[in-house]
């Protein structure tokens, strides 16, 4: 297979391509996304991404880090514990507002709104170029640009597996599959790894597997389900039967892939 074929594998058929539309979509989602992720109170320092960074000693207090598609700044906050020279970029200005508030005490932190491909063109500007779950990297040119602006390392994090038993029960009840969540498809990681390899680098891949206990409301579930009015009533009735003190306690089964490569072969 040639590199262009791996690009096709990496790209999602349902991805939106209009920048203005994407900005509106993520601006509208920003409050929901912030509330949803903050409630998890996830300890990012224990996640495999940062274990790898610490074990490999990739960063020090003078390192410069770029987070592409930084969202509300969850990863930036963890990076700031190592270095204050952090830059976050996102297509959503509202997402960046949350990130700015979160990192208001980090004097060196920078936030750039807009298309990262237009805003970052300087060669070897950052020690680490990082991206987690973002739809902003979908082409060979995007990956080439990551390599260009990094003088040391690139790292990406993607979902490759996700399972929610509550959603599975709803599917069984309805007798059909629910709409896919906005998580990453595993073929992306396969395409990405091969593109990086074909560009002459030696990417490493790590799997972060964990089970997370969740406490969600009926509204939390319904916000992510597309259904008819009749189905909605059935689903709400089902979910209320699962409630205890206003919360539905369940588990999420998650596998994330971390793809890491060194820009310098030696």
From TrEMBL:
The keyword Methyltransferase applies. Keywords: Methyltransferase, Transferase. One of its GO terms (molecular function) is methyltransferase activity. Residues 65-139 form the Methyltransferase domain. It comes from the Bacteria. The keyword Transcription regulation does not apply. GO terms for biological process: methylation. InterPro entries: Methyltransf_25 (IPR041698), SAM-dependent_MTases_sf (IPR029063). PANTHER family: TRANS-ACONITATE 2-METHYLTRANSFERASE, TRANS-ACONITATE 2-METHYLTRANSFERASE-RELATED. This is SAM-dependent methyltransferase. It comes from Fusobacterium nucleatum subsp. polymorphum. The lineage of its organism: Bacteria, Fusobacteriati, Fusobacteriota, Fusobacteriia, Fusobacteriales.
């Amino acid at each position: 297979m040639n590199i262009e074929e791996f690009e096709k594998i990496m790209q999602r058929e349902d991805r939106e391509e209009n920048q203005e539309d994407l900005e509106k979509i993520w601006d509208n989602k920003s409050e929901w996304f912030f509330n949803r992720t903050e409630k998890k109170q996830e300890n990012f320092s224990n996640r495999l991404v940062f274990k790898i960074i610490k074990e490999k000693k990739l960063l020090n207090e003078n390192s410069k880090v770029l987070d592409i598609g930084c969202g509300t700044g969850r990863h930036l906050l963890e990076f700031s514990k190592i270095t204050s020279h952090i830059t976050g970029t996102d297509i959503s200005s509202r997402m960046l507002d949350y990130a700015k508030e979160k990192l208001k005490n980090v004097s060196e932190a920078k936030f750039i709104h807009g298309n990262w491909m237009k805003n970052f063109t300087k060669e070897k500007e950052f020690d680490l170029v990082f991206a987690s779950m973002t739809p902003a990297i979908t082409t060979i040119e995007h990956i080439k640009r990551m390599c260009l602006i990094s003088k040391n390392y690139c790292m990406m994090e993607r979902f490759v597996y996700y399972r929610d038993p509550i959603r599975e029960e709803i599917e069984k009840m309805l007798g059909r599959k629910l709409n896919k969540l906005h998580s990453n498809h595993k073929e992306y990681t396969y395409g990405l790894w091969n593109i990086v390899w074909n560009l002459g680098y030696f990417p490493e891949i790590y799997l972060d597997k964990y089970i997370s206990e969740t406490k969600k409301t009926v509204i939390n579930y319904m916000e992510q389900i597309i259904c008819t009015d009749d189905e909605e009533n059935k689903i709400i009735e089902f979910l209320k039967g699962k409630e205890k003190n206003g919360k539905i306690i369940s588990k999420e089964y998650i596998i994330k892939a971390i793809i890491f490569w060194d820009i310098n072969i030696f």
